[in-house]
Amino acid sequence: MGTKHQDNLSMTDDEIRRRQRSRNIAVALAVAAFVVIVFFVTIVRMQAGIQASMGG
Question: What's the confidence (pLDDT) of residue 6?
Fold first, then answer.
């Protein structure tokens, strides 16, 4: 566990920023995927509700 702490100390500012940026991009993509899934599930459920109310 001590080596991980030492690795962080030896990283340059550019390396730290690069890791943070890649982590931020991964989180943004995960959030975007979640939003898309929720959107499509909502559309499907709304369509099913409309068809049910029309007697279909």
Answer: 60
